[in-house]
Specification:
- This protein is α+β, with helices and mostly antiparallel strands.
- Helix 9 crosses helix 10.
- The strands form four sheets. The protein has a nine-stranded mixed sheet with strand order 1-6-5-4-7-3-2-8-9, with helices on one face. Strands 10-11-14-12-13 form a five-stranded mixed sheet, with helices on both faces.
- A hairpin with a 4-residue loop joins strand 2 and strand 3 (78-83).
- The model has no long low-confidence stretch (mean pLDDT 86).
- The chain has four domains: 5-235, 2-Layer Sandwich (Heat Shock Protein 90); 240-383, 2-Layer Sandwich (Ribosomal Protein S5, domain 2), CATH 3.30.230.80; 401-498, Rossmann fold, CATH 3.40.50.11260; 502-633, Heat shock protein 90, C-terminal domain (Four Helix Bundle (Hemerythrin (Met), subunit A), Up-down Bundle).
- It contains 22 helices and 22 strands.
- It is elongated.
């Protein structure tokens, strides 16, 4: 063995320690995935070398036959995974094997519960990778050298997976990485050729380069053991290049776990080959769960890009819009250059055509999932719904298609679940209804009990209830669906169109005319607090509400702007009152202007609270209310 120099002992990052402990216990029931994860990493390392060698052919160092080898030693109880890929430098090994630099790490750690079953799902979402080796091994050694470095710059990394690791510089003649797993006493079943072959066939058959295992051969009696021979145990062909009819669902699922670094099967996938003006293959997947960095728009995202089956880059984000950043997959083009860069991708007209086609393919896949597997789509929406709501603003060409995939809570439900599609809403619409009515707010309880819904309940008209923070922003880009325009029931002067009879309209006009004096009195009392006072057509039970001006920002948008440090334009609400309510009748008959003012302000503040707003002067509200209570008790 080579002499070790520059040997030092370093501590794992805190998150790595936690992850190791939880993984060893939570994933114990599916131990064999360690081999899938390590082969997947080796495959990535070979892909990276193949791409780098396009401009640095000397990095191949005569070893142009790229492969992965898996071997074992029954007596020593070891399993070894070796590749001749890109390899690691000393700094690479410290960074990649001692820390987790993944965005979303803090959220991941915060969500761990200590419940092994639940945590196994979370760990799967996060990706288990190299550390899965410690599920079966009580010591792991890594021997590696980065391509292009001298043989004397090899690295030996070793750890027992507890709190620290050792790292030293060694001689290593060949580039690439060799990982030696020293199996735990109870895991020696893996030091077996038949067992390892089966795991490779089960999880890694799709890997597009040879995975070799020692050929089973026995020496004749009295003869020396023959020289070690190797045999390829996987198909070693790129999955996406094979005809769909030849690929089993299990193969598609395992390939997803390989490229998505996921532990769970995908919800759906779409495999296509395009020929003609453009030639490319694509294999796109919808994950079952959201990654922890889904809402970090700057986090790495995108498809794996291959050019003529040569890996070019990870996270090529130019092929799908940002609102579809959760999609995983591969695109393999015959039209792009092998030296393509991210900058070139952003300007290439070929990419625009591919992006348009791939986006439609994803939306078609989601439509199919929603139609054929509504329960699965419900799960998809819980995980990715808020990201899909970014779509109408980003993707004008597919706005109607995206709108059809959106799901909302409504007054038809009673639990706040977002399950109602716009098509279902319109199918249940009242005869003569030419609008889609909605209400935004902070919580489901707040919007469900809002006074703005009173006239809709009376007439049996369904209203969509929007409580995600992004919803008001979404609706500013979503003007209509299937020819029907959207109406915010808390905004402007509510007009129910054909849903109000001519008699009702005439009666409303007469009532408004008769209350002109009261309107002027309230306006004088509330002064600058309101932009307008008017008789309400929305109320049946409440005395008053606050409506938003047609062009004014709602509460959600105001909060978004304030949170981002932007100046919020001044606006004042519209005060609407219910002339048939006993409190309004009492107000109308009030002779004392002071008392009239107090009552008007109390009604205004109550309407603000009902809308989920905070009071500008809570002390004044309490003072007026206490004064009124004292007068009533006298």
């Amino acid at each position: 063995m080579s002499v070790e120099t520059q040997k030092e002992t370093l501590g794992f990052q805190t998150e790595v320690k936690q992850l190791l402990h939880l993984m060893i216990h939570s994933l114990y029931s599916n131990k064999e995935i360690f081999l899938r994860e390590l082969i997947s990493n080796a495959s990535d390392a070979v892909d990276k070398l193949r791409f780098e060698a396009l401009s640095k052919p000397e990095w191949l160092e005569g070893g142009a036959e790229l492969k992965i080898r898996v071997s074992f030693d029954k007596d020593a109880k070891t399993v070894t995974i070796e590749d001749n890929g890109i390899g690691m430098s000393r700094e690479d090994a410290i960074t990649h094997l001692g820390t987790i630099a993944k965005s979303g790490t803090a959220d991941f750690m915060k969500n761990l519960t200590g419940d092994q079953k639940k945590d196994s799902h979370l760990i799967g979402q996060f990706g288990v990778g190299f550390y899965s080796a410690f599920i079966v091994a009580d010591q792991v050694e890594v021997f590696t050298r980065r391509a292009g470095l001298d043989a004397s710059e090899g690295v030996h990394w070793a750890s027992k997976g507890e709190g620290e690791f050792e790292i030293a510089t060694v001689d290593k003649a060949e580039r690439g990485t060799r990982i030696v797993l020293h199996l735990k006493d109870a895991e020696d079943e893996f030091a077996d050729g038949w067992r390892l072959r089966n795991i490779v066939k089960k999880y890694s058959d799709h890997i597009a380069l040879p995975i070799e295992l020692p050929k089973e051969q026995a020496a004749a009696e009295g003869e020396e053991a023959p020289a070690q021979e190797w045999e390829v145990v996987n198909r070693a062909s790129a999955l996406w290049t094979r005809p769909r009819t030849e690929i089993k669902d299990e193969e598609y699922q395992e390939f997803y776990k390989h490229i998505g670094h996921d532990y769970e099967n995908p919800l759906s996938w779409s495999h296509n080959k395009v020929e003609g003006k453009l030639e490319y293959s694509s294999l796109l997947y919808v994950p079952a769960r959201a990654p922890f960095d889904l809402y970090q728009r700057e986090a790495p995202k995108g498809l794996k890009l291959y050019v003529q089956r040569v890996f070019v880059m990870d996270q090529a984000e130019s092929f799908l819009p940002l609102y579809l950043r959760f999609i995983k997959g591969v695109v393999d083009s015959n039209d792009l250059s092998l030296n393509v860069s991210r900058e070139i991708l952003q300007k290439d007209p070929i990419i625009d055509s591919m992006k348009s086609a791939l986006t439609k393919r994803v939306l078609d896949m989601l439509e199919k999932l929603a139609k054929n597997e509504p329960e699965q789509y419900k799960g998809f929406w819980k995980n990715f719904g808020q990201v899909m709501k970014e779509g109408p603003a980003e993707d004008f060409a597919n706005k109607e298609k995206i709108a059809g995939l959106l799901r909302f809570a409504s007054t038809q439900g009673d639990d706040g679940e977002q399950v109602v599609s716009l098509a279902e809403y319109l199918a249940r619409a009242k005869e003569g209804q030419d609008k889609i009515y909605y209400l935004t707010g902070e919580t489901y309880a707040q919007v469900k009990n809002s006074p703005h819904l009173e006239v809709f309940r009376k007439k049996g008209i369904e209203v969509l209830l929007l409580t995600d923070r992004i919803d008001e922003w979404l609706m500013s880009y979503l003007n209509e669906f299937d020819g029907k325009s959207f109406v915010d029931v808390a905004r402007g002067d509510l007009d129910l169109g054909n849903l109000d009879s001519e008699e009702e309209k005439k009666e409303a006009e007469e009532v408004a005319k008769s209350k002109e004096g009261l309107v002027e009195r309230i306006k004088a009392s509330l002064g600058d607090a309101v932009s307008e006072v008017r008789v309400s057509h929305r109320l049946t039970d409440s005395p008053a509400i606050l409506a938003i001006g047609e062009q004014d920002l709602g509460m959600q948008m105001r909060q978004i702007l304030e949170a981002s440090g932007q100046k919020v334009p001044d606006s004042k609400p519209i005060f609407e009152f219910n002339p048939a309510h006993p409190l309004i009748e009492k107000l109308d008959g009030e002779q004392s202007e002071e008392r009239f003012g107090d009552l008007s302000h109390i009604l205004f503040d109550q309407a603000a609270l009902a809308a989920g707003d905070s009071l500008k002067d809570p002390a004044a509200y309490v003072r007026r209310l206490n004064k009124l209570l004292v007068e009533l008790s006298v």
